[in-house]
Amino acid sequence: MSILKSLKTLTLSLLVGTSLVSGYAVADGPKEQAKPKVLIFDVNETLLDLTSMRTSIGKALGGREDLLPLWFSTMLHHSLVDTVSGSYHDFGQIGVASLLMVAQNNNIDITSEQAKTAIVTPLLTLPPHSDVKEGLAKLKAQGYKLVSLTNSSNKGVKAQFESAGLMSYFDARYSIEDIKIYKPDLRAYEWVLKKLNVAPNEAMMVAAHGWDVAGAKEAGLQTTFIARPGKALYPLAKKPDHVVKDLHELAALLK
C-alpha cells in the first residue's frame, strides 16, 4: 500500500509540475505587441510612385528605361558609403552621381547637367500610389499620429508632399539631412524616436524597402513591409511584424 501511495503522490507531483511549467511557458511566451502610438513612413516608393521617372531616366540613358531600378539602388548604396565613411552629400547630389555611374558602366554618354535634369524635377513631382491618400485618411481617422522619415532633403520632401497633395495627412516630416546619417543606420531611427519622444516599441516604421524595415527592426521599432511590385524583404534580416500589400490593408490591420 505504501508503494502504491508513493507512486500516486509522485504521479500527482509530476502532473502539477508539468502544469506549472506549461503555465509559465504560456506566461513568458511571445505576446502580441500593443498598437503603436505613431506611424513613421518612408517616402520614395513607399508613398510615392517612382515608376513615372522611367521616362526621364530612360531618355537620359539613351532609351534604357530598364535601368531605373539600378539607378535607385546605386543611389541608396552610395548614400551608405557617405554614412560609413563619415562624409555627407544630399540625396540629390548622390542621385546625379549615381546616374553618371550607371551611364558610364553601360557605355552611355551623359553630362552632369543632363543627369540633374533627368532627376530633380521628376523626383520632386512623383505621384502617390493609388492607395496612399485614402489609406492615410483611414489611419489618421483611427487616431494615429503620422510622420515621415526620409533620406531626401527637408526642402525636397516638402516639395514632394505639396506636389502629391499629402501635406495635410502628416503631423511632421523628418529628414536625415538634420543629422547627416542615412537610413538604415540605426542612429537615424534612434534620432527620430527622440524627436517624437516615444519608446521604440511605441512606433512603427512603414516602408516598401527591405533594408528600411530591417534597420528599424534592429532599432527596436515595430515594422510593416508594404510589398509594392518589385520589392522584396531581405531574407537574412529579422522578419517585420506585418507584411501588407497596401495602406488599405494596413489600416484594416491596425483598426
UniProtKB/TrEMBL annotation:
Keyword Disulfide bond belongs to the record: no
Enzyme superclass (EC): hydrolase
Catalytic reactions of this protein: an (S)-2-haloacid + H2O = a (2R)-2-hydroxycarboxylate + a halide anion + H(+)
CDD domains in alphabetical order: HAD_L2-DEX (cd02588)
Residue stretches in coiled coil: none
Presence of the UniProt keyword Metal-binding in the record: no
Family matches, as SUPFAM superfamilies: HAD-like
Keywords annotated in UniProt: Hydrolase, Signal
EC number(s) reported in the record: 3.8.1.2
Leader peptide range in chain numbering: 1-27
Domain of life: Bacteria
Function: Catalyzes the hydrolytic dehalogenation of small (S)-2-haloalkanoic acids to yield the corresponding (R)-2-hydroxyalkanoic acids.
Family of the protein in this entry: Belongs to the HAD-like hydrolase superfamily. S-2-haloalkanoic acid dehalogenase family.
NCBIfam families according to UniProt: HAD-SF-IA-v2, HAD_type_II
Protein name: (S)-2-haloacid dehalogenase
